[in-house]
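step: validate -> pass
step: tokenize input -> pass
step: predict -> running
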Amino acid sequence: MASDKSVDYYLKIAKDNPYDTGTTKQVCEVAISICNADKELDKAVFNLYREKTKIQIKIFSKLKVIGERLLQLNEKDRRDVIDQLPQSYSTIHVLFGLKPEAVLAGVKSGDITKKLSVRKADAYVRKVKFPTKYALDGEKGRWGYKQETLFHVVRQEDLNLNDELRKDLKEDLRIICSKYGVQIQDANATSINTLRKEERIDRGLFWKMILGKELDQKWFKTTSEEVRKQFNIKTVQELIDAPIRTFTGFIIKSCGSKEIFWEKFGQSYVAKLHVLSETNDNNAKRWSYKKRLMDVFADPRGRNLAIWNTMILKNGGYV
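step: predict -> pass
step: emit ->
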């Protein structure tokens, strides 16, 4: 049976860390304490503690779920996640509809930030859970009536306009256009898709070059003839162009184990996933490869790979 002091201890944490007006760290602190209390206190005492917190049952349950998910991460990953979670407990609860590893991956990829709203968090969770359904590429829309194009707004290739600046530009142009009775509309889907496809081709070639440096002819010559025959791979280029299962199977068989694969060929695997995520014509498959990259970076074995990935992108001018 837990002592009254134990109950007082958890009640003090709840008081010092308000879930509704506190910081993200405070929300997570009280959530973790609720989870710990559930483990350490007897059921009757825990129910008494829950009543004394004066937190609504539904909210209390949400906080408990948040605590459970956070405790599934190691201390370092937990700190990294908490540092980027939004302040709202409702938004955090929505995000933890995903596995903790997926949330960690979202944090590392920059998809999960402090500014994330409940609505956007829900959309992100759905996208991760159901990639095929939400893998829409490009924008939809039609002009809908006869018109004459008066001007084109263009930008130089080296001029970077993030989403916020693009939104501000569009609003300023809309105000000016309304003065003359004309309208501003987004570029049509065809031009957007063409531009995105060209950018994907460029990134795909870049990562294929990186992959060629990781898996060179000198290494390929060290692989056994038996393995080459088993996978029907005659050259290193055929290996680079092979499907992902053939690619990983060939390397694992050649190096001897998955552990060695992660240690010595993890960078090659990351580069291969990038190539596939940029060059595959199927939207859903491209998203599945990107999600696999997120999973790799969230894996404890993938921390160094995440650092290497960022370095390569920076050196290539992609971030």
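step: describe -> The radius of gyration is 25 Å.
step: cleanup -> pass
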